[in-house]
Amino acid sequence: MKPGPTAFCAASTAAWLAFASMPAAAQIISGGLTVARRLAPSALARDMGVRPGPELPSAPETTTPLELTDAVRQAVARHPSISDAIAALAQQSGGVDVARAGYYPAVRVGMGGGANNGASGAGRGRGAGTLATASVSQMLYDFGKVDGAVNQSEAQVRRQQAAILKQIDTVAQQAAEAVVMTHRYQSLVAIAQEQVNAVEKVLETARLRAGAGISTKADPIQAESRVDSARANLLQVKSQLAQWRERLGTLLGKSVPPAVAPLPERLASELRIDQLPDASLMPDVLTAEAERRVASAQVEVARAQRYPTISLDVSANKAMGGVNPSTLERNGMYHSVMLNLSSVLYQGGALDAQVRAAVAAEEAARMRVETARLNAGDLARNFREQVIGARERLGVLADRRRSIGEARDLYREQYKLGSRSILDLLNAEQEIHQAAAEQEGVLHDLWASRIGYIGATGQGRTYYGLNNTTVQGMELLP
Q1: Which domains does the chain possess?
Q2: Which residue from 136, 227, 269, 383 puts its CA 20 to 30 A from 303's CA?
Q3: pLDDT above 50 (res 121)
């Protein structure tokens, strides 16, 4: 049987009364869930008081060509990720002070008031007043709990120091790569412009010959097509150059010099790829080793929790009016000196579980150290092979470019004499500029491999001149 209108109204009224009778907290939670499901970035920023931050320091205005090492120094001097890592180091350093505080006594003072039903003066009755208290607790021996906490905090500091080194190397690597790529497309723009100029000269020659009736009118048409293709290639390369200049501007600041200086051959001559450096100095290995030390200290702390803590406790209290509940005297004073031994006898197996977890974490951290060594060595060897291969290709490409240049010059003379078609000359012009672009590409691939090898082996601070300098308040030493 369906419920009638009266029953429906009664049910609705009951539901409304039930909601109205709900506690205010429940209604707030219901409304809060609705609000929490809304995402409004503007409202979120307003509620958190987010304000536009100060602009990062920019590189000074200059028309001097940008050097690779200068770009790296400017990038690491301003990048916020390095500032973030340095601030985190200050936080970890504070944790060491907190852990060391366990060696020193803890002094507590307090004051409270209340009533009791003890003696009051000469007679029996109720006394009330304020009780001042003071206590001192000094840890005497804890079987290594505080030592383990200090070691763990110090290991976390070392881990954060390694993270700063890694972040500096990362930013230096990004800046060096951006400089190499910007110089690459800067060189390719010059080659593309040379190609446009060369093909335009061929077009001019073809028009003169066609106007004089020496060649057909198809020659200028074919030359115009190649000119358009060369111009389109020039625009494409300029676009890529602009993209990398913007990337470089993000790392350096708003002001980017109009040109990038030739890449330093001194750095190339000083770079040794025939032998890998010590892997223990690489940032990834240092970070993994610091994590292993953190885990090792955690094992010490977990094992020390099994043993008691011996402490000396001194306390005193005085009733500031009223009865001291410890002495049952008005304005009475009470003090005590105690040697305490405290230990957790049973905690449902939690202590043993903590030790097992800490030992497993230490073993995992040890394997991460080996993994970091393995990956660093593999990456360095990979870049080393790329460097060797690029060097060998450069010699072949230089010979190819020279031979194609000779053939192009010969084709020019033969075209003027009418013994060579314009298509042969246009193909020769295109091929020689392709060979030049390919040679520049391999040359910059060689530099990119060198930069990658420097980063993979953790030698960036040495080769970019960052050692014995101060980066965002941090002094870098070899």
Answers
A1: 68-103+144-306+352-460 (1.20.1600.10)
A2: 136
A3: no
